Amino acid sequence: MRAAWLICAKDLKARLRDRSALLIGIVVPLGLAFIFNAIFSGISGGSDVISLGVVNADHGAASQQFTSQVLPAVGRSGLISIHAEPSLARGRALAANGTLAAVIVIPAGFSARVQAGQPASMQVIGNVDAPVSAEIARSIAESYAADLNRIRLSVATVAGTTTLPPARVQALAAQAAAAAAPVAVTDVSAQTRELNQKSFFAAGMAVFFLFFTVQFGVTSLLEERNDGTLARLLAAPISRASILGGKLLTSFLLGVISMAVLVAATTLLFGATWGNPVGVTVLVVTAIMAATGIMALIATLARNAEQAANWQSVVAVILGLIGGTFFPISQAPGVLSSITFVAPQAWFLRGLGDLRGGGVSVVWVPALAMLGFAAVTGGLALFRLRRLAEV
Amino acid sequence: MDGAIIGEHVLRCCGLRRSFGKLVAVDGVGFHIDPGETYGLLGPNGAGKTTTISMIAGLLERDAGEVTVAGEPMTTHSVRAKSALGYVPQDLAIYPDLSGRENLMFFARLYGMPTAEARRRSEEVLALTGLTDRAGDQTKQYSGGMKRRLNIGIGLLHRPRLLILDEPTVGVDPQSRNAILESVEGLSGAGMAVLYTTHYMEEAERLCDRIGIIDHGKLIAEGTRAELVSMVGEGDQVRLAATGDLASAADGLAARSWVRQARALDGSIDLVVDKARSELPAILTDVAAAGATVRSVEVTEPDLEAVFLHLTGRALRD
Amino acid sequence: MKALWIALMNLHRMFRARTNIFFVFVFPLVLILVLGATFGGSSSPRLGVVSTGSGPLGAALLRQFEQTPHLRVVTVSDPATLLTQVERGNLAAGVIIPPGYDGAVRAGQDTMLRYLARPDQSSQQLGETVRGAVARQAALLGAARFAVEQHVAPGFDAGLAAASRIAPSVPQVSVTQTAAGTTLFSRTLGQFDEGAWTELLLFLFLTAMTGSVALIETRRLGLSRRMLATPTSPATIITGETLGRVLISCVQALVIILGSALLFGVNWGQPAGVAAVVIVFALVAAGAGVFVGTLFRNEQQAIGISLLLGLGLGALGGCMVPLEVFSPTMRQVAHITPQAWGNDAFAKLVGHGASITGILPQLGVLAAYAVVLLALAAWRLRHVLSA
Predict the structure, then answer these.
(1) C290: exposed, middle or buried (Cβ count in 10 Å: 0-12, 13-18, 19+)
(2) Contact, A103 vs A87, CB < 8 A?
(3) Does domain A50-178 sit in CATH 3.40.1710?
(4) Phi, psi torsion values for A204, nearest 5 degrees
(5) How many helices and strands, by DSSP H and E, does chain B display?
(6) Does C182 touch chain A (CB under 8 A)?
(7) Which of A335, B139, B212, C69 has a C-alpha 20 to 30 A away from that of A247?
(8) What is the pLDDT along chain A (391 residues), one digit of tens a residue?
């Protein structure tokens, strides 16, 4: 195996001088991560606080209860901010230009009508491009309206067809209001087992370009055959296994260097969080092995180095797409979300996602899957490489 | 050479056989090389030289036959046999992205030398090949001649018992070619055994102690130059440009026992004789005695091309 | 005419390599398909609901969720699966209607629904929508229970029946909703539309960039010098090489546009407008590609830089993440890139049904890019060919 290390060292020296490995393995993914980081640092909307406005033109009991009890309770979670607006015109303008996602308007006379048991309505004006947030605003208003309706319906059901005296109605209404709602919703927090956007792009970019970085190892065997230096290696007093081993080792180490630099750089420069170091190391190492195996196998199927590089690029891009390195594909409908696991990249990203929500032990399944890829493809490649190493 | 037992061949191969599909590239080739001897494998393109070499160097599996290098059996996996053998392939086999020194260091270590020795030996080879000044430059910047010198130098690094050079002068300019031939002469002068393949007759004649002629995968003749030439049995050709009574001069010469043929042409006399060089004084005397005056003398001895032609009916060079 | 021959030769060489066919034509179309399938549909959040064993009332609540606008309900078989799906981000949030819900409500017990959300804000904000839907059903159930408590109804079922009977005649407190502001797109976009034009621009530029490698190869093989040795002026060669790139881009655009229109029903807008954008952008891409091709002698390095520029500028210009999601500052930065102007043009053509006159500003900017880049390319190419 000494010879394998010598060959690997020689290849690494040549590759790192060549700069193309540095470009593909480090510069390009880092550059793209930087750009994505810049884009996503300034993203507005989505995971931000929803700004809701309320215009209270009524100031009666019912509307006061809404604005001073219901809304603050909603706002206490910090997820939704409530802004009191002085007029309908102002509220509508802010909703129109997007400053507010929606405005809840309580028209004048609302409380009186509620008190009198007449039909009453609240209005929600939502920004046309924020339908989800507008729906949330509507739901807040609806919850309150539904509660008022519950009281009305309760009283009406008890009254039946008879008309009750106002005092009785008042008493019933008070009793109904005091009754607890039959169904309540309690919050259960789930963990997050997905990467945040920044980390997703860092990890996706790194693992996508990994499959290009590792190409440099085994493909060089074809180049050496072409250049005539393979004959020298075969004439030297070393075993064939060490020649093949050296080449595979080169691929692996190039992958290690590339991934190490990318993980460190994206963490330090862009604040990406990869997760527990032990878990990340296990996932990264098995991913590199899987990538090396797959690319090596393709190289053994090609006739020359150029053809190998072409086929490897096609496969790397397809696997990158299916594996969800460009965008999360697990949300895609139907067959797309199932075939994602044909690609080792998907296992890598899945492992990182699970690592966020759990302990190190969650990485065993993805790691074993990627090891499986490595074993099968690497084994086939070695088998085919034996025949390749004949002059 | 160190450790050589007198009488032990540096290379012994016999019954080498290799086919590629239906094509039989090498068919029963066998020869031996003694220590310090330069053996030439001469044959036209496609004769099977490179295939034979590949089998001897352990690059290619044999279908049949045995190869022993310095007493060790050679296979594609042999470590000991390969350690005794230096290989210089026909195509330049050097790494373009590494410097000359790095190339040498890499192969030195690959051949099992510890780092210190590898460094020392690399410097020696650099000096030998005249590349010390440019040792730190990447070889892709070397001239063609420099690359060739390095190519050979790598084969010498580990002080092999036998150096194999596979057609080292193909496509090389005359100056570099001469330099290569001189270095091979130097090596054999220093006592290294050399196996040299070529399709250039002049090289074989100049360098080799013994020559094996190979054609269509078979070794059809073997021996020193003199032995091979004598196979042809042609005799030497002598052309005398002369004036005077050429016809009678020719008749007079024809009577000599060692003259096989004598012809008088317009302005010259053509002869075929045995051992022209030693009989030249006698020829000139006879011609003068016949009353003709000799202007110039041209002697042509049969060469290996003639040998090849004689053996196969085809030309050595296509 | 010679220039055209050189250009056609470039086109022919490009087609020769099968992997080129994949990267230039097939992959963009595949990407458009996958993008559209994954993101092009409804952008409403997905809510998972477990309701097994929850009885008729549980089913009624599920229907309530399904009728809520801007919410996509996905039924999930069990809480464990629901938790996994929510944690992995496949579902925005989840609701568990407990088994025996029906019985518990009828028995007058207070019942709890569990709402599963991830720690991030959008997941938790959705809770309000869930509460709204629940509140609507709770009204009826609350009235029924009240009737039982007030001894007006003998049992829950009777109470529910009474409440349901009287509900239509009870005046409601309701919520009306209207929208304000101008939409981003006045036309409704098809599922694959936005993905189609963004990927078109991305790949036109990327292909032109990586195609610059062919130019390097031509130099390396000594073919440029051979061309110069023929009675062909350098100007013709330069025109020919550049025209070749433009031709390749136009063919690529044609295939992607027609292919996506036929296969995925993508709407591209007014043909004249589309043609104008494509041609001008092809000129920009060709200029950039040829220029980069003259800067390098090494193929491998050129490919690396080309990828970086092609993907980087594409991302910055809104070809991967749409421009409307960018912050105002980043949106301004994005307009350094020609891709951003191209995206703007298409947004107008497809999203607002504009005609070619409506995109003249964008075309103008792109034309300016083209002039500058082509001039740079021609200057460098002349310099390189005479070296």
Answers:
(1) buried
(2) no
(3) yes
(4) -65, -45
(5) 11, 14
(6) yes
(7) B139
(8) 789 999 999 999 988 887 778 888 889 888 888 888 888 776 544 456 888 999 998 888 888 889 888 888 888 877 888 898 888 999 999 998 888 889 999 999 999 998 888 899 999 999 888 888 888 899 999 999 998 998 888 888 888 778 888 888 888 888 888 887 788 888 888 878 888 777 888 899 999 999 999 988 878 888 888 888 998 998 999 988 888 889 999 999 999 999 999 999 999 988 888 989 999 999 999 999 999 999 999 988 888 888 888 899 999 999 999 999 988 887 777 777 788 899 999 999 999 999 988 788 889 999 999 999 999 998 898 888 777 655 4
Domain count, chain B: 3
Instruction: Name which of B58, B90, B102 is nearest A235 (Cβ-Cβ).
Output: B58
A312 neighbourhood in chain C, CB within 8 Å: none
Both C66 and C203 in one domain: the answer is no
Q: How far apart are CA B185 and CA C91, in angstroms?
A: 81
The tokens 């009870």 sit on which residue?
Answer: C170
A231 with B89: Cβ contact below 8 A: yes
Are residues C265 and C223 both part of a single domain? yes
Q: Is A190:C118 a contact under the CB 8 Å cutoff? A: yes
Question: Residue written as tokens 């802010």?
Answer: A94
Residues 6+ away with beta carbon under 8 Å from C102: C54, C55, C56, C57, C58
CA angle C62, C67, C72 (to 5 degrees): 80
Nearest to A310 among C19, C113, C300 (CB): C19
Q: How many helices (H) and strands (E) does chain A have?
A: 18, 5
Q: C315 and A39: CB-CB below 8 Å?
A: yes
Closest partner CB to A148 (pick from C94, C115, C173):
C173
Provide the shortest C-alpha distance from residue A290 to chain C (in Å).
23
Residue of chain A nearest C68, judged by CA positions: A135
Task: Show the CA angle centred on residue C326, arms to residues C324 and C330, nearest 5°.
Answer: 130
DSSP annotation of C25 reads I
CA distance B70 to C312: 61
CA angle C273/C275/C281 to nearest 5° reads 100
Domain interval for residue B61: 1-84+160-234+303-318
Q: Are B253 and B286 in contact (CB under 8 A)?
A: yes
Q: What is the pTM of this model?
A: 0.81
Three-state DSSP at C77 gives coil
C187, two tokens: 């036309």
Strands of chain C, DSSP E: 46-50, 72-75, 93-96, 111-117, 173-180
Instruction: To the nearest 10°, report the CA torsion of B57, B58, B61, B63.
Output: 60
Residue C182 inside a domain? The answer is: no
Q: Residue C197 falls within a domain, yes or no?
A: yes
